[in-house]
From TrEMBL:
The gene is LOC113106453. This is Cytochrome b5-like. Residues 22-98 form the Cytochrome b5 heme-binding domain. The keyword Membrane applies. Its main location: membrane.
Amino acid sequence: MGEATESSVKRENQDAKDEDTVKYYTREEVQNHNMSNDTWLIIHDKVYDITRFMEEHPGGEEVLLEQAGADATESFEDVGHSTDAREMLQQYYIGELHMDDRNKVSKKEVYITTSKDSRSWSSWLIPGLAAVLVGFMYRYYMLEHRSS
Ligand code: HEM
């Protein structure tokens, strides 16, 4: 019984130690690593040092360089990477994105969504008005045609 207690205590200490060693990076810090011989990426609020991986990437070195030092979540998801690719990511994990910098992204996303909404609204208005105008012109033409 005493033994079991001892091992569970040990496990608890180990967990606490792991939490202490998590590193937090700001966007600014990650941005400094945007070179081909020193490449970091942010994907889903996690920071990866992919310097060793650049040449191995099946999608090529160039696409990774384009995203170097920045948030590649969107492009990573757009490609529809396999589960294998997601597991590979773990090897390059170096830490988490700083909490203060996570909020900035969600604010930016909200802004993008709103601007998209207003764009779709205005893209409806012009063809709509054009259709009404064509309708009136047709009616006018038919009336004139009949009277002559
Ligand atoms: C460190 C992060 C990344 C890892 C571990 C990774 C891994 C992989 C792997 C294993 C493949 C082969 C297909 C698959 O299994 O899904 C792949 C393909 C591909 N990746 Fe990535 N990738 C990463 C980041 C990115 C990023 C940020 C982009 C885009 C900017 C990207 C673009 C592509 C493209 C376009 C392909 C398709 C290649 C083809 O179909 O010929 N990858 N990646």
